[in-house]
């Protein structure tokens, strides 16, 4: 009987990891790097208060809405080629945004950034997945990748503060050009990708329209719920359209000759549990970045740079949890043994942050909660990425990676809109109930603002607790020594992976 061919490890895999991590950091930090720069950009370009949200929302909408398409393109065209095209497009869109002469041009550039990020991110993760076949090496690689995914948002806040305060808000976009150039040169030098075989599969255009349209409608509906209200006819119409389009998408995926999202990936309870855990976790995480940014600057009076520095301990906690704990333990313990405690620690950190006050102190009221939340997220991110992408057939590696990223981006977009709506509503109710003397208006408004933040953070804590419960009930796979690296063939997917995932 013929012995199976043993695939030699990629000799450039660790340098490839550096290139992929750099690209991933650029994509993730761009979701937050403009947050601190937004007030300066608004003044410079004459944006209205109603429209300024699109600087953030245009990026997350395009990113979350087109990720599945990007993943399938990576599978059909080739991951290295798609990775390079994503880098070039992202750099060009960043340069366009930095040169924006008006709000419309900036909104369009941010949407283009999201589209090319949706091409770049799944090809990056699928390249990483196929480069590392040894379970221990994969653990270390995913630990670094998870640290970039978790810490990139906080790094973006720091970079945004430095660039805005010492250069100009436009450099929050221009900075992507040299980063993308370095990553592109590195990609041509060290990344290796075989030309995809012609399997007869074609791009599922109808699935693209239904799936992307449904996700865009869903995220757009949550974004519009803040200024319009939950019962506004336009908001309800968006949610109804999202439900119809997503149901139609699932129906079509059962009949499409070459489905955009093979539903057998979702029938696996472990992968489905990872996707749901990621979405719920990022709802709470993006809420922390949003409220802590405003709290530190508007309530405690921090400068942009000081605000960015205040997030560094949280970033360090995410990196520590991911690279020093999860990466060391994942090949010894089941993934949920890391994910469940991670989510519970993150929820506990959120509970500590509900103690914020107008006269709060960073060291006692902010830092402990941020450290616990960051460490918990670090424990969670790496096993989610590793478990969701393990044992996937080669032709589905890109779309699986895209689904993980879609969960992250859609969760973050929904979290920003949902928690901000809760905070705004709670603030309005507090001010209306407590404002009796006009002379105390400033004090009452400040107290009401902090009250709104704490109410929203309580919701975030509950959502993270739910994420821990989902991980505990759905992710039942064993330690990753059973997980099958992608690229070992359909037999591995159908045999060993069944054991690993309990199917």
UniProtKB/TrEMBL annotation:
Pfam family membership, one: MFS_1
SUPFAM superfamilies linked to this entry: MFS general substrate transporter (SSF103473)
Membrane topology label: Multi-pass membrane protein
Keywords: Antibiotic resistance, Cell membrane, Membrane, Transmembrane, Transmembrane helix, Transport
Domain of life: Bacteria
Database matches in Gene3D superfamilies: MFS general substrate transporter like domains, Multidrug resistance protein D
Main location: membrane
Cell location: Cell membrane
Domain called Major facilitator superfamily (MFS) profile: residue spans: 16-479
Transmembrane segments: 12-34, 54-71, 83-105, 111-132, 144-167, 173-191, 203-222, 234-252, 273-296, 337-358, 370-393, 414-435, 455-475
CDD domains reported for this sequence: MFS_MMR_MDR_like (cd17321)
Matching InterPro entries: EmrB-like (IPR004638), MFS (IPR011701), MFS_dom (IPR020846), MFS_trans_sf (IPR036259), Sugar_transporter_CS (IPR005829)
PANTHER family given in the database record: BLR6921 PROTEIN, MAJOR FACILITATOR SUPERFAMILY MULTIDRUG TRANSPORTER MFSC
Protein name: MFS transporter
Native organism taxonomy: Bacteria, Bacillati, Actinomycetota, Actinomycetes, Kitasatosporales
